[in-house]
Structure formats: structure tokens, C-alpha cells
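Aim 2 progress. For Helicase required for RNAi-mediated heterochromatin assembly 1, the working sequence is reproduced below.
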Amino acid sequence: MPGPVTESDRLETIIRSHVYAEGGTGWRRISELPVAEELMTATGKTPSPSSLNTVSSSKDEYLRFNYGVLRHEGVEPLRRAVQIYKSAPDMAESTETCIYTEVFVRGVNIIRLGSMVRVTFSAVRTRQLVNWPASQRLVPGTVVALSPVPDNFQERCIVAVVTGRYDEAINCSETPPPLDLEIRDPEVAASIMEPDQEYVMIEARSNYFEAVRHVMEGLKQAAKEESPFDKYLTKGAKPIARPACLSRDHPSLDISSLYHRVDANIEPLKIPAQGDIPEHIENKTGLDGSQVVALQSMITKELSIIQGPPGTGKTHTSMAALKVLLSTQPVDVPIIITAQKNDTVNELLSRCHKQGVNFIRLGGRAKDDAVFQRTLFNLRAIHRGKARRRDQFQKRLDFLKSQAKILLQRCFPPFRQQLILPEHLQVVGLITLRQCASIMVNWNGSLNTIAGDVSRHPFGPWLGNETLAIGPHQSIHAPFISDNGAGEVLGSEEGEHNSSTNVRKEQLSGKPIPISRWHTMKIPKSADNNSEAVVRKLLANHDSLWNFPPHYRGMVYQYLEQRYIASTRLALTRVFERINDITRELKVVRWQEDIETIQESGARIIGCTTTGLTKYRGLIAAMQPRVMMIEEAAETREANITAALFPTLQQMILVGDHMQLAPHADVLELSKPPFNLNVSLFQRLVERGMEYSSLQIQRRMAPEIRRLLSGWYPLLVDHDCTRAQDAVPGMGSRRVLWFDHQEPESANRYASKFNTFEAGMVAGLYKHLVSNGTRPSNITVLTFYSGQKTYIENALRRTCQFPGRQSTDGYEETGPEVQTVDGYQGKENEVILISVTRSPEDRRKPDAGFVKDLRRAIVALSRPRRLLVVLGDAQNLALSSARHIWGGVLDKIGSWRTEYIPIFCEAHGTEIHISKPDEWKKLASEGGCGVACGRREIVHGALGDSICRGGPCRELAGSMASNVPSSHSVRSSGEGHVASGPTSLTAEEDLLDLRDW
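Predicted C-alpha cells for this construct:
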């Protein structure tokens, strides 16, 4: 009779249900990975449609739809890439298709995740050399398609997932690195163990399969579970209920953890579970009124939706709610915090660390050392000294690896052995005992005596001159076409929305089993389709292999080799199958040990990305969490959240802003009705009328900047602190500036836009700001295009010489951050420079491109605290399809829009107008205005008057004010910034020609 079920048994059951998740009916039987047949189909199969804001007929139908849409996105880009290549096998790479040739299998790497096929490849179809360590090509998690070169996807296609890219194995960054590929079918993996078979490999540039693979697996798991949130997602339930842990007998919640009580006898601070909130709570918690309302929702509702417009303190409010929840939840049940981006997760965990909250980070890399030290990977190392239950499985895996090595090395002998041994051919019945003896009778050597010399092999004398020495295939990396792509950095190839940016899987360890062929055989010219019959006849008629005609012996050996390899594949397949079984058990044990590690660490918080939620779903589910907080929820795909609704969850908090960036769809048609992949669960619930709270007081932007957003956030108001921010040195008292121009754009080879004129102006302005005292790290340059991002980075490298240095307070200075708008949501900085980029050469065809996206516009305009400078063609935006967005912005900017950049000398109050990139060169190199300062210094060996070069003049400005010439008198403009009247200078004037300096 079995004993009682223990907690350990329950955890193991949960884990096994995830590791062994096959089965099910209908859509749950469909593989997450693409199938070879569908990749070779000319037309893709569109998933069944759905409608935004409608209620699904059932949970299964709801999950089926989400699974179908995600799978189409995972399959369709690769299918299209294969079809493009199939139509023109000799093509160079296109904007959608990456092509790798001379792909050869070099061995197998057996690790804890299974049997990985090691390959090398060439990248001759690229239009320029690739800097592989910096490239987003073929990162782990990418799905690829391979086909034998003679076939080229006509009959055969092999689907694989990149599990390792070994950049450290190459001695030149432009040499393609070895790859490990996961091929799910053991029989297929065994069948391609042939070192001389060349393949072509196709990668879809726009698709990162890892991002959807784990989510699809999670959706299948969710179909087997019940969640308290199902009623909101599929049945449209309203209103929102209380969580199961908060009964109606509790009219209020203790939030005393939000303030320090000097006297323990003071009454606890409590917030009503519903209804009006007393005013004194704002004062004691440090939260504003809208934040307190949001806090009430976050800690008292089963489902809480919090909209946080830019600068309103979403993260601050989330941390307050988290502090309260930690005081009310059991200490042994972690709270889950998650977000779309690694940086956001790390920021939240860093704040937890500063508040003394213990946490653990699943996956990802962290710049913050406190977060890095608390990654699961590092905590595993701390507990590594313990006896591991996985040892027995690791020993079995090692044994199977040795079996695979024996099989492969018998088929493909190492260099020291050169050829297959006669005895191995005899064991499988390819030659008789007498035939084997005829070769071995005169051989007195050993494997050691062969020593890489084929003539010393038993078959060496018999083959004579019928062998031709060959070596392993080498990767070629010369570009197919010499085209450096204007403004591109070597290997800078990210797409406009590369979801794989900065995503790298933990590098896997292991020593691969290599396979190579060291000799090929001479085949007689008389050989034809009947050569196999000739060989069989010779083998049947002669007991001694020496009786074979010498010119047939190479052909005979090749026949025997091929048959031997074929006979070994079945055994190799079985070994690979057993390895797969062992790796599953290893995963179960590993997750069990991880749970022990987490529990022993005392972690109250588990942090991971929304992709990590499903990648580690079994591990997290076994922890039986009750609360999950999702930051950036409006940027997160609905399926990522749906797939992670663990049955033990009682509270889910969605924090985001559906007016900012939305989820991205790699397949354009999936972003449109009826699929709506770019509509988040956050947005869908809000638009369906679900109750939500909105924060209303912003503490980031100067009021002049915030007013640009008033059309989209009419209730947003400024906190008093925004009016007290210092002006930016070198820009007078300006807060907003639009530099208007009509210099035309260009496009790189990936059709990404760039504008050389804007890049030059950005570089010059950046140098001016830094010369006048703004830290490089306080400046961020934003653009809507990766091509422009690259061009600006190049321009900054050419123009500016600001290496890292220590400031007076010991702060390590770095250069500016140049980012696409899509990569900067959730961040902010003192100064934001926006390069609009778009300016068509044909003025009759205005086009805003990505700039016509309202959400991107909001994100871009709302990042600065003290200064916003937009550089772009205003007329193009005003006349394009983006006029409804930018027309209002331009109206609010008004006279702050100029055809020059007005910069200021802080010492002399001089305003200088810069309208072209080369005009920056005429300023004094340290950022001054070039006016004579009244100081004396040595110039070309003689004592002369000094000119203003920025900083030093500022220190002397007060004492030298009487010496400033009257022609440089300063007046105050009506716009609130310092400007000079008749003394305003332009860089065109010879007055500032300081080239000799």
C-alpha cells in the first residue's frame, strides 16, 4: 500500500507534467517546430481568425487560436525564406533570407540537453563581412532549414534549432563560428552523420523562434489546467473579484510596511479594501493620490490593471505594492515579477536588493552585480558541493556518449587510424572471415603504428594508389558582393524590430565527437550504374580480397564504407533515443534541485522575462506562486501571459501603458485584424471596458516637454519638481527645440533608412553639449531606424574624442547611448536627441514610415527630463500620413522650430546658429563661443588675447564681465531663453574661424 503523498511528490508531479508534456488532442498534437513539408510548400496556411474584444466560445478555442497565430509566426518567415531561395538557388542574400553554403556536419556534441549536431558553414552569400561576435545571426534559439545541395529543398528539408554558437572557437571575428544544431528526430540526426555531404542552410532574418517556442509549449500546458483568470480572458467576466486570500470579512489591509513607525504603539496604517481612501495615507506613504488608488487595486483585486503614462512612477508604485504584498504573503511562496525586457526585470530586482528583499533571477544577464550574483546559474554553483541526485543519470549519459563515440569513430576513424578496420566490416557481415584474414594475415601493426599514415593501415597495401588524401572542409567567409552598405558597421545587421536583440542563450558546454574522412577513393572510369552489382559479385566470388583487380579496389572500399555507415545508423539512432530519455530525466532532477536551491536561498521574489515565464514554466509552477506582477504588460503579447497563468495564482497585476509601444509581430499580416497579434492583453481588457486605474502626476519631463503629449494624455499634470530642473549648459534655458531641414534620406542594403545630414548634426550637438559640461551618459540619441542608429554611432566615433574618464565625484563616464525608439521604452535621460531620419528626395511623395506610429512618437517624445531636441523634416511629417500625430506636436512647438540649432556660450551669453554639420568645426574645440575673453595666454610662442573655449571662461565670467565687449551684450527673449540681438553669430562668419587652434 503506497504511503501518503508528500510535498516532494507533488512538486515532482508538476515538473514531470511539463517535461513529459506530449499527448492531447486536436491542436495540442501539432508540433511547435516547423515541419519539413510545410516549409517546402509554396503557400502558407493562414490560421483561423478571431476578433478583437470578443469573448471566446471556450477556453480551448481561445488557446487554439493563440497557438495557431504564434505557430504561423514561427513558421511563416522561414517558409518564405526557403521559397525565396528555392526559386533562385544562386541568389545572394535578401532582406528576408540569410543563406549559408558549404554546411558540413563535423560531429555530434552530447550534452545535458541531448545530442546536438556540430556543423561548420561558409557565409559567401552575404554582401559584406560579418562580425560574428557582434552579430544577431544564428543566435541560440534560431530555427533553420537545411537541404542537401543537389536537392535544394526540392525533396528534402531538415529543420533544426541552433543551440550553440561558438564564437570563441574562431581566431578571426569574420570567420563563421561552429554551430550546434538540435534535430528533434533521432533518426534524422543519425542519418546526417556524413562529413562530406554538403548542405545549404536558410535562416529567416526577421524571426527568432525561441521567443514563441516556449510560449506554444506553455499554451499546451495551460489547456490542461484551470485558472481563476480564465473567466476574464474567455468569458468576459465583470466586475473584478477579490483574490481568494482576501475574504470579504477584511474591510481593510495593513500597509504599515510603507512607512516607518517610530512608536510601535501607533495605530497600523490601513487602506480600505474598496471605496474612498483617506487623505492621510498619501502623506504617510509618499504616494500621490492616483498612485494610492492604484495601490489599493494592486493589493485587493484578483486582477489589477494599472496604466502608467510617461514619468508617472509606474515602477515606484509597483515597488510600493510589492512591499505590501511581501508583508501579507507566506514567506515560503515567492512572488513572480516579470517584464518583456531583461533591463526592466533587472531594474526591478535591483530595487528589491536596495530594499533588502531577497530574490532570484531566472535566465538573462545583468550588468548590476547584485542581480548577477543572484541569478539561478550562480546560486547553483554555490550549492554544487551537495550530493546530486542527477549523478546516476549523468553517468548513464556519459556511458551513452561513449557508445556513440565508438559507433561514430568506427565509421569515421580519427586521423591516426585513417580507414575503417577490416574486422569491423567482418563483424557486421560485409566481408567474410576469410576475406578479413586475407588482409590481416600480413599486417603486424597496431592502431598506434598507423600514426596517420594510410600505407601502414591493413587496407593500405591492398589499396595501393587508389586513395586520395583529403582534409576537413574549411569555412569561407569572403563576401559574395563587395558592398559595405553606407553607414554600416561590420556585422551591424539588426532589423527594425529584431526581437532577438541582446538575447543569447546560456552557452552549453561539452566536448564534441568529431567525424572526418581522410581519404577518398579513385573510381574507375568504366564504373557506371552497375558498379554496385560488380562489387557484390566480386565479394561473392573471391575469398581473398587480393584477388580483386587493383583498379576496382577503391570502388570496393567505398561500397563497404557506405554500407557500414548505413548499418551503424540504426544503432546510432537508438543511442540518440536513449540519450533523449536520459536528458528528460536530467531536466526533472535539475528542476528539483533548482527548487531546493531557491528555497534554501530564502528568495521572496522570482524575476524573469515573459519569455522566461514559459521557458521555466515547470520550475515556476512547482513553486506554486500566488501573485504575479507583470511590468510592461501593454508591450507583452497576450499569449505570453496566458501561457503562464499557473493554477495556484490568486492575484495578477498588469502594469503598463497601451498608449506606448505594443507587442510586435514578425509577420505583418498577423498584426492586423482579425489576428491582432500586436494587441496586448492589457489593451484588450481596457478596450473591453474592464476596470483599470491610471496614474496622473508626472515627475520626469519639464512642463514644456510634457505639453507636447497633452493631446494624448489630457489628464496628465506636472509635479512641482519638474519646474525646478536646471537648464542644460550650452542651450540657454531652452527645453524643447525642433531643428527643421529638408536634406534627403538614404537606405542601406536592408532597406533601413538613414540620413547622413542628421547624423552629422547629432554628432556636433552631442560634442557641444559634452564640451559645456553635460555628462556623456546623460545624453541619449534616439532614432526610428537601425540604419540611422548605426550611422549616428559611426558619426560619433569619427567626430568625438570622449573616452571613459573619472569625473570629480568618481563617476565613470561613458559615451552616449544610441538606441532605436523601440529599444528605449521604460528608460529616460536628462537630454534626448531624436533623429527623425525621414526626408524623401522627391518632395511630391511625403512618407513618414515608422515615424507615423503613434506609440513610437509618444515613447520618443516622453523620454527626456530637461531637454528635447528633435532633428527632422517637419514638412514631410506634416504632409504625410503621420500628420494626425505630428501636426499637433509641431503646433505646440511653434517658434521652438527653427532651421538652425541655437547654442549658447554660458560665459558671454552669446547665441550661435548652426545649420550645417561642417559649421560645428568652426566653434572653439572645448565648446566656447570664440569671443576674446580678456585673458592673456601664449599663442604660437607669443603672448596674446585668449578666446572663449567654454569651461574655463565660465569660472572667470563674473570677474571679467566688465571686459566683455558691448557688441556682445545679452538680452532676454520673450520665449524664456537667453538670446542675443544684433550680436547673434552664425558659424558662417570668419570671426570664429579657429582652424589654427
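The radius of gyration is 34 Å. This observation will guide construct design in the next reporting period.
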